[in-house]
Amino acid sequence: MKDHGLCFNMVFNERAAVVYHFTPRFNAGASLIMSNSIYNNDNIKINQNKWLARAFFGVRF
After folding, report:
1. Nearest to 20 by CA among 11, 29, 12
2. What is the pTM of this model?
3. Phi/psi zone of residue 5: left (φ > 0), alpha (ψ -120 to 50 degrees), beta?
4. H helices within the chain, ranges in order?
5. What is the pLDDT of residues 20-44, one digit of tens each?
6. Distant-in-sequence, close-in-space partners of 53: CB < 8 Å, separation ≥ 6
């Protein structure tokens, strides 16, 4: 049987959010970073990075 070596996948998700509240309104922001890497014998075969940022405001009833 042939050895195909070590192959594994790593996924990292990082999130952060900030909310500024002043009655009865609020402002908020959120961000997300997703990293996905697939390795084969210590060589990176696929590396993907995705970024998402949002800012929003609202009124509390």
Report:
1. 29
2. 0.57
3. left
4. none
5. 887 788 899 999 988 887 777 666 6
6. 29, 30, 31, 32
